[in-house]
Amino acid sequence: DSSSFTDLPKNWATGEKDINESWKATEQGLSKAVAFVRDELGWTTRRWLPSANALIPLVYLLRDRGSGFAANEREDIRRYLCVTGVRGMFRGSVESTINKYVSPVRKATKSQRRASLIFKTIPKNELRSIKSEDILKERGMYSPLMQVYLAYLVSRGVRTWHEEAPLLDVAKRDINDPLAVHHVFPRELLREHKIEPDRINCMANYAILSQADNAEIGDKDPKPVYDALSGRSKDYADEQLFGILAEKRDWITAYEVFLTTRAGVLASRLNTFLRLG
Fold this sequence. Notes:
With 277 residues, the protein is mostly helical. 51% of the residues lie in helices and 4% in strands.
């Protein structure tokens, strides 16, 4: 009932409770929690998981269940994992943070929804909106914001563009790194046009594709690539590009407009997904 090792009694492994029985319950909860992040959010590798520590309160919640999360709990669990990831809430004092989210579950009555209690433990000021400026400032290709973006895409059943495979199916392929963070405007092309490095590596310039699609597109100018797509493939591209490239203009010279426009839509979509602000 506590994640603080200093609070453990000296006989913690030999007391009245059998440590093996305790581990079985933990293993069962862990299996269900991991299945949820893989199947519901597409976080199939450690690279895409914002925080392993954030799973511990969920494992505790599931310790006495034979099944996983109930249908009416999934939205709260999804929001809890995404918001705590984006806000970096499990960095720093990890033990006290885990205890903070375990405590309402431990005290809950049978009639209370434990998942809802976990989500409601998040401070209200952390439920503020994601701003377009946050997207424009984000450089990391596997940052918490990008991890939440993947969860958003999976929730919508978004597909990769050429293979036309659901991103969730791609994420679950049996290879080390099945997903690729794709630069919509390739780095070399932008360097040739003297674009600053911090504007090249920017979340507003990132899409998530399969490794195969990323390799097929390569360093090509995105406008002719986009124009060559047709039917469902173009629809799948617009799930991430939001139709911006459909506008007839020289997007290399209007690259800042592209970043600003796409950052605004990304922020809006993520806020709606997480019900922030």
